[in-house]
Task: inverse folding
């Protein structure tokens, strides 16, 4: 794998850390600003919505810039947002800093996925995307627990200052290691928007919303589930989240490896397995060891869907993949917000802290249904010489090869 992927992974590490570390620092931030925990929770909601809005917005606004320059600008925006959060004198400015940082999130991963795929041979694209996303998974194993510890011991402002420094490191790495990759000839907003007329692109994004949403239905409420149902202490929740991060890391590696070989069968396996594990989690959550194992499996199966889903969008929007790739990153966060809301509804209805697991199981099962439908449509749709692309993204012998896109 090219060394340039390391620079993208460093940026992903910083983004992953700032996205998730806020959950462990909410009490400290709420106390400093004199707001309630639910009000402080707007820092999570605001970030997620910023990703959904920023992914297509900044990708369109930066449409005339080279992809390398866009990645550098996005990391600069990320650094500015985290610095603003670190020095924010009141809660409103803190929330503004979070939103500013989040605007870079979707476009960075969307454009970064296109760049990563363009750095390697067609049969290694999913592996390259997974390498970049390794930074996000490692953030949940190292960055989030360490950032939470530093924030609780020294002060949460120090955590955000360190995250800003990580962003600077990612920016410098991109400037040094990522090759100049201008946008392909003829790439226009109309062609980028045209990708959304492809039903397969829309189906892949719907799978993203539902599939990874299933993960967040359970994980959003993991703390009360583990303390009130499994019997863990509050202090053990941090280490349970490390297990979840370890599962994400493993799933990302396996997803990246096997998506290049058999993308759709991998999605059938991971989405089906995720639905089953989440359903069983309603039972295993009552036992400490089984609950811990379930958390690892949810992380592994959930994140094993990320490289194949992102590659599926790139394959189906191969003529103009940048905007579709960025919007699909927003779809992950849309799924997170939707699943967290649905999980909260079933808890508020008095169904208990394990009820969100059923929500997640149903969402993952719905994503599996969409995957099967997508494959059935693909089998029934006759290929044309200019549009037919096999799962690996390599044109078949009877096609006119599409021009390479970086």
Result:
């Amino acid at each position: 794998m090219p060394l340039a992927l390391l620079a993208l992974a460093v940026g992903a590490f910083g983004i992953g850390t700032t996205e998730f570390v806020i959950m462990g620092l909410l009490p400290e931030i709420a106390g400093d600003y004199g707001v309630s925990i639910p009000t402080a929770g707007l820092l999570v909601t605001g970030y997620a919505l910023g990703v959904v809005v920023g992914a297509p917005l900044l990708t369109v606004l930066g449409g005339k810039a080279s992809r390398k320059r866009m990645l550098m600008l996005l990391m600069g925006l990320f650094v500015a947002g985290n610095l603003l959060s670190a020095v924010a004198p009141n809660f409103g400015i803190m929330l503004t800093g979070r939103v500013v940082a989040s605007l870079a999130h979707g476009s960075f991963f969307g454009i970064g996925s296109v760049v990563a795929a363009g750095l390697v041979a067609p049969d290694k694209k999913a592996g390259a995307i997974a390498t970049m996303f390794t930074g996000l998974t490692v953030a949940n194993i190292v960055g989030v627990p360490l950032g939470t510890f530093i924030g609780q011991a020294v002060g949460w402002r120090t955590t955000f200052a360190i995250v800003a420094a990580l962003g600077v490191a990612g920016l410098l790495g991109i400037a040094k290691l990522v090759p100049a990759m201008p946008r392909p000839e003829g790439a226009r907003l109309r062609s980028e928007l045209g990708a959304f007329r492809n039903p397969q692109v829309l189906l892949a994004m719907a799978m993203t919303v539902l599939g990874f949403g299933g993960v967040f239905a359970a994980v959003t409420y993991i703390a009360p589930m583990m303390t009130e149902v499994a019997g863990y202490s509050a202090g053990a929740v941090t280490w349970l989240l490390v297990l979840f991060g370890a599962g994400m890391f493993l799933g990302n590696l396996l997803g990246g490896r096997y998506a290049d070989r058999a993308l759709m069968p991998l999605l059938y396996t991971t989405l089906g397995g995720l639905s089953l594990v989440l359903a069983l989690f309603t039972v295993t959550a009552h036992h400490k060891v089984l609950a811990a194992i379930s958390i690892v499996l949810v992380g592994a199966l959930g994140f094993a869907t990320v490289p194949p889903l992102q590659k599926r969008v790139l394959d189906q929007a191969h003529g103009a993949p940048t905007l579709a790739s960025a919007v699909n990153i927003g779809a992950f966060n849309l799924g997170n917000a939707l699943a967290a809301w649905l999980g909260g509804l079933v808890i508020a209805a008095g169904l208990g802290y394990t009820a969100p697991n059923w929500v997640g199981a149903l969402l993952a099962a719905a994503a599996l249904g969409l995957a099967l439908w997508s494959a059935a449509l693909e089998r029934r749709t006759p290929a044309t010489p200019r549009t037919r692309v096999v799962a690996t993204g390599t044109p078949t012998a009877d096609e006119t090869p599409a021009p390479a896109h970086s």
Summary: The mean pLDDT is 82.
